[in-house]
Amino acid sequence: MGLLYYSAHRKHYLPFQVLIDLVAPLISDHAYYVEKGVGWTLREIGNIYPKEQEEFLFENATKICAYGYSAGTEKWDKTKREKLKQIRKAARVLNRKNSI
Predict the structure, then answer these.
(1) Residue 6 confidence (pLDDT) above 70
(2) Number of domains in the chain
(3) Is residue 60 within 8 Å of residue 88, measured between CB atoms?
(4) Does 55 fall in a domain?
(5) Nearest Cα to 13, choosing from 39, 41, 54, 36?
(6) Is 16 among the domain residues?
(7) CA–CA separation, 85 vs 100, rounded Å?
(8) Is residue 17 domain-resident?
(9) Considering only Cβ atoms within 10 Å of each terminal Cβ, which end of the chain, N or C, has fewer?
(10) What 3-state class would DSSP assign to 55?
(11) pTM beyond 0.85
């Protein structure tokens, strides 16, 4: 997140691909502070690259940690957030069935 430091205070940003390449390897990490950092960073990326952030989250909906999902989508409208939530829920159900 230090790369963005709250986007509202910045005039210049790193390109989306540079930012997401730093976050992507961490999206499924379950360490508490890593999850928080991923979520905050995704939220800030969404402030400056909303379309790209949305595409990334939908492409990785089943991989992203819980807090990353929650914080990364907190500024989305309810409909869009519900759609992503349903994708995540369907994947969990499928994983449970496959593990039995």
Answers:
(1) no
(2) 1
(3) no
(4) yes
(5) 41
(6) no
(7) 23
(8) no
(9) C
(10) helix
(11) no
